[in-house]
Amino acid sequence: MPEEKTKFIIASTLLLYLAFSGLASISHGQEKCTEVYGNGPNKFSLATGSPGELGILKVLGETFSKEMNTTLCWIKAGTGDSLKLLKEKSVDMTMVHAPDAEKKAVSDGWATKRTLIGSNEFFIVGPPDDPARIAGAKNAADAYALIAKAKTKFFSRGDNSGTHKKEMELWKKTGISPSGDWYIVTKDFMTATLKRANNEKGYFMTDSSTYVAEKKNLPNLKILCRGDKFLINTYHALSQPAGATPGASIAAKFIDFVASEKGQKIIRDYGKELYGDGLYNDAAYATQYDD
User: Fold this and answer.
1) Considering only CA atoms, which of 285, 235, 246, 3 is closest in space to residue 102?
2) Do the Cβ atoms of 290 and 232 come closer than 8 Å?
3) CATH number of the 3-120+233-289 domain
4) Mean pLDDT, to the nearest integer, of 83-93?
5) Cα Rg, the chain, nearest whole Å
6) Where are the domains of the chain?
7) How far apart (Å, rounded) are the C-alpha atoms in residues 47 and 57?
8) Fold: same for 3-120+233-289 and 121-231
9) Exposed, middle or buried: residue 220 (CB in 10 Å: 0-12, 13-18, 19+)?
10) Which residue stretches of the chain are H helix?
11) What is the pLDDT of residues 101-137, one digit of tens each?
């Protein structure tokens, strides 16, 4: 084979390899996709945290792609950062859980189509021997007060995510401003912080979906506080106003799909086969906690 032809074949093969292996690194605007679902010409981007980490976004995105010939770019970000990306027009939509911030985004005009899509809840987990004795707490704020009083190790994401916002609301209820060696800020995502709490035998407020998915890997943690209505966590989807970004119209259609019976069935059933329990409740269930 001539040398020039051999070089051409090698170069072409390398380019194809880089194209396929680098799909998850393609950019949408200035943001790199964490993962990409589908390969159709109708492209849109979505910022969210746990729904992407836990895989439900992949199922929703790939099912939608088969119907609408789309490519979904998922950008991994907590709720606060997801809303910031939406405001900056760096993404076409978000899935988040911070009702007050969501409503302000809509009233300020840079987000629209706020749609309830499901819920989970928060658990306060900690070492099985429960050194702060929070298992007997009357509510979540009481549990936090007991942890602070005992100065037992507590992990905070500290990242302006929906989880962090909820945590700070609880501290506000107690009248305590947490600080000291016992209060550890990770600046990390849900799964990573949950695993660190397990490894270091501390307390943490985790969403129920992540806990169900990871519990087999968490021998040092136990659910110690749950059931407080304040810990119910409703998820909403929001999109760019029409025409604000190239993918805004496809994002709006994706929200309709997620809210449809087909999308809601995916949300209700996701996780049952693998974990024996669903990771999320659907919008019909979540309505009772929505505001």
Assistant:
1) 235
2) no
3) 3.40.190.10
4) 98
5) 21
6) 3-120+233-289, 121-231
7) 11
8) yes
9) middle
10) 3-21, 50-53, 56-68, 79-87, 99-108, 140-150, 162-174, 190-200, 208-214, 248-259, 261-269, 272-275, 283-286
11) 999 999 999 999 999 999 999 999 999 999 999 999 9
Q: What is the length of the chain?
A: 291
CA–CA–CA angle 23, 27, 28 (5° rounding): 120
Separation between Cα atoms, residue 16 and residue 18, nearest integer Å: 5
Residue found under tokens 């998922």: 74
CA dihedral over 272, 24, 105, 140, signed as positive or negative: positive
Encode pLDDT of 1-37 as tens digits.
454 444 444 444 333 333 333 334 344 555 799 999 9
Q: Are 103 and 109 in contact (CB under 8 A)?
A: no
Degrees, nearest 5: CA angle 47-213-67: 50
The residues facing 183 across adjacent strands are 154
Residue 184: CB atoms within 10 A of its CB come to 18
Residue found by looking up tokens 């024996």 in the block:
276
Q: What is the third-level CATH fold of 121-231? A: D-Maltodextrin-Binding Protein; domain 2 (3.40.190)
Residue 169, number of CB atoms within 10 A of its CB: 13
Contacts of 121 (CB under 8 A, 6+ apart): 207, 208, 226, 231, 232, 233
Please give the structure tokens belonging to residue 18.
């880089």
Question: Tokens representing 258?
Answer: 């997620």
Please name the residue that has the structure tokens 């994706």: 254
For the chain, give percent helix, strand, coil, nearest 5.
50, 20, 30
The distance in angstroms from the start CA to the end CA of the chain is: 70
Whole-angstrom distance, CA of residue 81 vs CA of residue 48: 9
- Take residue 209 and report the two structure tokens written for it: 């979906």
